[in-house]
Specification:
Order of helices and strands: HHHEEHEEEHHHHEHEEHEEHHHEE
Number of strands: 12
CATH topology of the largest domain: Beta-Lactamase
Strand order of the largest sheet: 2-1-5-4-3
Number of helices: 13
CATH architecture of the largest domain: 2-Layer Sandwich
Distance between the termini: 93 Å
Largest sheet: 5 strands, antiparallel
Helix content: 40-55%
Strand content: 15-25%
Radius of gyration: 56 Å
Length: 505
């Protein structure tokens, strides 16, 4: 099977299956390593124990007299003396100096090991260290130790002869013990793997339950339910908790963006509908008079003059609406956050606008009582700002026109100017019918007119004045507020950042 096929097969497995397989592979590797180490250590220990037995047997055999000149009847007592100090099947022989067999102190039960040539020089070279030999289909551990013993020549004055004691032990017992232990370990490890696989399957299944909940939530969101959220499955210190928090944050932004797009589309549809209505009214008036003239419905000069005056007023109204729409379009922010309307910012004092608004109100509505105070009352105070005087004057003109058009004749008006903390304030308060909270929230919308509460007149505008005022104040990094309630009038308040450089009165 190629590597690509293996990868495809693995990719088709579920995450739970892959996790269980990985865990089992790690357990198998750990068991194999630990078992191999344990068997190696045990085998080494058993071999060392066999070497100790062989060393003990060789040392005991070296203390026995040389019985090579005796008859075979004397061998059993010697063999019994050795066996009293030995345990197990140990093969012990006495070799002469030239490596020949001198005496068999303990013969092997089966086949004897095939020993290499062990003359005096070879035994001395081995230094008493154990070595392995084979024979009879088995492996043997062998120890050869040099020894000096006396023969019958010692009685005739001859020098003592030299030789060696060789002790050998079969490794069949050690190998059998290792094979039995390995088989038992194999059985135990198999049972352990089966048990761990079952436990791991259910443990991984329980651990992945939060991910299945996230999957269910994601499927519901993909189906269009953007209000769904991933439940708080764990602490944000964990990977799962951070994943849930990140998903919920992303969903909040997606839902907010979707709601904003929907609101924008609604406003756009409303704007197009309102703009079409406002533009259609003067256009229909102009079209009606022109068709009436074409059809000969204006035989007299006076009728023509009256129609032309109406056409002129409707044209002026149409031009005014278009100019307001263009101004609003320029005031809208572009993607860089800048307005497309250049502002000529210079240091100025809002008291100038307040004084001009006072004169305008007295000239346009001489029956109204107009007072100039500070914000909320008291004497007026300086309000230095950095602004475009022409544009701010346009804002104040819209507020003045709004107060005249939508409040009862003879009602009083108050103009306030001053500062509060880091803001310069210019406000206009009337004693009109006021507005509800819902109307106040929509008062700065385009083409919005609170007709039921503010009494639109026949000469009322298109509902763009307050929207233009709001956009112009926003372009000056300020804000415009309205404080009102039904029957309590309305107060429009312009708040702009204070300009720190001194400005003369």
């Amino acid at each position: 099977m190629s590597t690509t096929s293996v990868r495809r097969a693995v990719a088709r497995l579920s995450l739970r299956t892959r996790l269980v397989i990985i865990c089992l592979l790690l357990v198998v590797a750990a068991l194999l390593a630990s078992n191999a180490l344990l068997i190696t250590l045990l085998q080494r220990q058993l071999v060392e124990q066999l070497d100790e037995r062989l060393g003990t047997a060789a040392a005991a055999a070296a203390q026995l007299p040389d019985l090579s000149d005796k008859t075979d009847a004397t061998a059993p007592p010697s063999r019994d003396a050795v066996e009293r100090q030995l345990t197990g099947d140990v093969y012990v022989v006495r070799l002469s100096a030239d490596g020949g067999l001198s005496q068999s102190l303990r013969p092997s039960v089966g086949d004897a090991p095939e020993l290499p040539r062990l003359d005096a020089a070879a035994v001395a070279a081995r230094g008493g260290e154990p070595f392995q030999a084979s024979g009879g289909g088995s492996d043997w551990r062998v120890i050869a130790q040099p020894v000096r013993f006396s023969s019958r020549q010692v009685q005739d004055g001859d020098a003592p002869s030299t030789g060696s004691i060789v002790a050998a032990g079969s490794l069949d017992g050690v190998n059998g013990t290792i094979r039995g232990l390995g088989l038992r370990m194999l059985v135990i490890d198999s049972l352990v793997l089966v048990l761990l696989g079952a436990i791991g399957w259910f443990a991984v299944r329980a651990g992945l339950r939060p991910l299945r909940r996230i999957e269910t939530t994601a499927a519901a969101i993909a189906g269009g339910d953007l209000s769904r959220r991933v439940p708080d499955l764990a602490s944000t210190r964990t990977e799962l908790g951070r994943l849930a928090a990140a998903l919920n944050g992303m969903l909040d932004r997606i839902e907010a963006g979707d709601a904003a797009r929907a609101a924008t589309n609604d406003r756009m549809r409303t704007f197009v509908a309102d703009a079409s209505h406002e533009l259609r009214t003067p256009l229909f008036g102009i079209k009606g008079f022109t068709e009436l003239y074409r059809m000969g419905g204006m035989p007299e000069r006076a009728d023509v003059d009256t129609a032309m005056n109406r056409i002129e007023r409707e044209s002026a109204r149409l031009v005014h609406i278009v100019e307001d729409l263009l101004l609003l379009a320029r005031l809208d922010e572009d993607p860089t956050g800048r307005t497309r309307l250049p502002l000529k910012l210079t240091p100025m004092d809002l008291r100038t606008l307040a004084a001009d608004a006072l004169h305008d109100l007295r000239a346009l509505a001489s029956d109204r009582a107009v007072t100039l105070t500070g914000p909320g009352g008291g004497p007026p105070r300086a309000a230095p700002v950095l602004g475009d005087e022409a544009r701010l004057r346009q804002v104040m003109s819209n507020l003045v026109g709004n107060a005249i058009a939508h409040t009862p004749a003879g009602s009083s008006v108050r103009i306030g100017v001053g500062t509060h903390n880091t803001l310069a304030i210019l406000e206009l308060s009337d004693q009109g019918p006021g507005m509800t909270a819902e109307q106040a929230a929509r008062i700065f919308g385009r083409f919005y007119r609170a007709d039921t509460a503010r009494g639109r007149t026949q000469t009322g505008g298109a509902g763009l004045g307050l929207s233009i005022a709001h956009s112009l104040v926003t372009a000056h990094h300020g804000r415009i507020e309205v404080h009102t309630s039904p029957g309590q009038g309305a107060t429009f308040r312009i708040l702009l950042p204070i300009h720190t450089d001194p400005v003369g009165d």
